[in-house]
Amino acid sequence: MDFGVLLGQAYSAFVLELHARLGERGHPMLGASYGFVLRALAENALTASQLAERLGITAQGAAKVVDEMVRHGYVERRPDPADKRAKLLHLSDRGLDMLATVREFHAAYERDLIARVGADQVATVRAVLGEIAATATPSGMDRAFRPL
Question: Average model confidence (pLDDT) for the chain?
Fold first, then answer.
């Protein structure tokens, strides 16, 4: 099997399991960008334009994702105390729960993989994937994926 196909299939399997876990916890996965936004806002509140810059996407793209996440209760817009014209984006309690669910899933997935194939194998996979990501990540996106 081609390497790229294998990577794609592994990622698809991972995402399917993640979505199932999120669904079990009352978080139907609605947007592929949710994870980026959750991680970016977990560090601190941002304006929509700051979020767009942080994620390396257009302001219009960020606004679309944020509107959807606000509509589904994952993100809240609050007045910026430093600039009354601006709104800061914060994770809601629902957003924090979704982020906690994702983090729990990631940790459990890795523990289960270690149990199946061994810690050394998983460490090697991590190193290889880290190298691929380091050379292929568009500017800005690497910050969204930083471990939190």
Answer: 90
